[in-house]
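Minutes, methods subgroup
Present: GH (chair), OT, SY

1. OT presented the first of two proteins processed in the latest run. Sequence and structure tokens recorded below as shown on screen.
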Amino acid sequence: MSTDSNEYDLAVVGAGVIGLGAALAARERGLRVIVLERAAAIVGASVRNFGHVGVTGQSGRAHDLARETRRRWLRLAERVALPVRAEGATLVARGDDEMELLDAFADRRGDGIRVLGRREALAEAPVSEHGVVGGARLVEDLQLDPRTAAVHLAEALAGDGVRIEYGCAVSAVEPGLVRTSRGEVRAKAVVVAVNADVDQFFPAAAADAGIRRCRLEMLALDGAHRPRLERPLLTGTALLRYSGFRDLPGAKALRARYQRDWPEAFEFDINLMATQRADGTLILGDTHARGDVASPFQQEAAFDALLDAARGLFGGPPMRVLQRWQGVYAAAEEEFFVHAPADGVRAVSVTTGIGMTCGLGLAASVVDGLFGEREGSS
């Protein structure tokens, strides 16, 4: 690796949102940072998502980290050309049981959510009127462009003096030392942020945490001739997934109703939601399948279930499929994985599919743990 000096304050392995978030937090301290990414570009889970920063629906530590992540995305948008929409998200309720959950959540959370009547929900979301009984505005949520947000973040870091080495494979991590395909890198601290591939570096810790690979599948639809989504669109499946909703009274009954009325949602573990990019492309998803490996073989039946759900949600003629893709992220029972195999070394991952939502906040907390919490930090 040709450089005047291979000594850094922080070496980051992985140029996803969490790795870049660690680099961002370290640069805010004025530290020398290098990011080592084995791929030739950012192509992982950080670009294969909705771009939805789902702050409102989280609870406990996840909500705290999500709020810090939100603050960081908005602050970054003030400095670089990073499109961020801060109008929240709309959740459309298509059952009285869903409205009861939204009302209960509003009683608990207060200003984080605004419950909508049927007419208000239909005014916010260009969906079929069939079955809609109301909804909610999830006030704290953001929308990013999933294809470019991490890329913009990397470019901003590079412009601020962070060295990013693409196409650089890491073979070993030791205290103060990272061995790569381009030579050795010395650093006071090392953060390993390689998503589910943490088991390639720290297999015992990954096994103890129960980390598996979650494969998700998504679609890009031609939404250019449909009414535009002004913000991310969620449905009742979000009430079964996000921690702030799923522990409420009534959530078990809602799950039972979905199992009875839409068994495909459980066969393919569907979270029905959509966002829209600036070019009109509608991102629809997503299905989930967990295992020790992420099978490369996609089931057309899962895509059929998504498209059928989209037709029921949006109405009108079927939309043309532009792209299909698969994403892979780390999954475990706990929401976050932070492992300290040695002094000055941390392995970190978000293990519930909320990396865009919590990643920057989690990364900043890890950097605080390595270098000491900054005065006035949240």
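2. SY then presented the second protein from the same run.
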Amino acid sequence: MSGIWKDRPFSLVLSGGGALGIAHLGVLHDLECKDLEPAEIIGTSMGGIIGACLAIGMKETQIHERLKSFASVTKWIKFSLSGNSIVDSARIEKIFDAIFGERMMADVSIPLKIIATDLETGDKRVFAADDKVLIKDAVLATMAIPGIFEEKVMGEHVYGDGFLCENLGLRESSLQEIVAVDVVGRNSFINTLPDNFFKTFNVIEMLERSIRLLMHNQTKNILEQVDKNILLLEPDTSAFKTSHFHKVEEIRALGLGLL
């Protein structure tokens, strides 16, 4: 790969997937080792968070250290007793404020696009350099899973997680060459259905499997529509759940050696 991509600018597209998105770090590590830097970054949900960190000039080791703080969910999750979500975003906002400060979408080293969904219309919203939007606000929008994380109100619009419209933002690439990392791709499923003793566990696992299938099929359809040179990397995340933020090292390792 290094011989091809060193000669051509490429977009780095990072998917959503909750804690599974930590696997993006392994790919970033390998890109740095090969002295490869994307010409633009496109991210959804967790891919948007990691992509934004990379875009402002953070190295993989720095992003890695930041994500370790998510290993203890009590440090960033505060349950909400009102509104439309389970989690109050106050603690998460403080973390993103410490990382991005008052940087706007244009205040980056590498051009950045972050995908969110307008929860009132269902339309895709792509935050980019032309928008007078703070990076931290765009990140809060792209990760706002409806019902789980607090929706992000920006002006007259209400935004939620980008996975609802485009979990792998291939259509937003302005370049012909794309390196895309999909943590909920074909390697994110096991061949058997849940068979736990307790029905509750089966229901939860079936719900997560269903959401992964929806995102995977969404991406398959988009791949058929995009006429570009795509290097698609799909880490084997099948043994992990989207809530496994405490398994940073194990999930990061899944992205190593894919290039």
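Chair's summary of item 2: The CA atoms of residues 26 and 256 lie 4 Å apart.
Next meeting: continue with the remaining queue.
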